[in-house]
Fold this protein.
Amino acid sequence: MAVNATDSQSYCMDISTIIICKNGSAHLKETLASVQGIGNEIILYDSGSTDDSVKIASSYGANVIYSKWEGYGRNRYKAAMIAKNDWILMIDTDEVINETLKNAILNIDLRNDDIVYKMRYRNFYGKTQIRFGEWGNDSHIRMANRKNVNTDQEIVHEKLFLNPGLKIVTLNGYINHYTVNNCIDYAHKMMEYAWLSADKYHQQDKQASIVKIYFSPLFAFLQNYFFKLGFLDGRKGFICATMTAWYTFLKYTKLKELNKNASPIYKIMDKKCGCF
């Protein structure tokens, strides 16, 4: 529900922006600049950055909190619990809110906490927007009142659980997500996510069958390159589909090794808590 300018200016200040970080300086200036004027608090929850991330965050007035790395879900949860406001805007160091989305956020009536807000993404490979495949038509819930949202606090790809009766509203505008810069950057990122996802599945006692190891990667490629029209993104569309297939193969191969030989890297966290 839209409100008049005076009410909007009053209530839009009751927002805390949380950003989890480790060596995220590449786009951090753009990220922080894009959230200036939204709310009255920015928290950078830093897990040992050795680049200029902390210096950049401090220059933009962010409250820097130092932490150890406990996984994406757990660190986001802890950052949200530290925040002084119940309304939480959650973004990453490679995400930039465009002006249309910023205006939409500033016009939210925060007195109505029975709504959670989904935001659409424009995902970039280098300077090229990827319009199709896995990265096309992407959106996520990125703002909610922490009293009404639970999270499973997983190591990676954490899930949100909404209290009954909440309404999901998609805001106008986009988050520009500068996902990867090049193939090497992309490969490193996929390996990291594959290892974390394998450990997550290991904790959940999931199994890696031959079908999952060999056929799931093939299906992932076909789905993203053909069914989701990734080929329309040209060479980079082919790379994205191939990397997703490779990630899927690595994830299940690593899971098979963990199930046979290894222990979980992380302790199982509490499965539900009262915020992001």
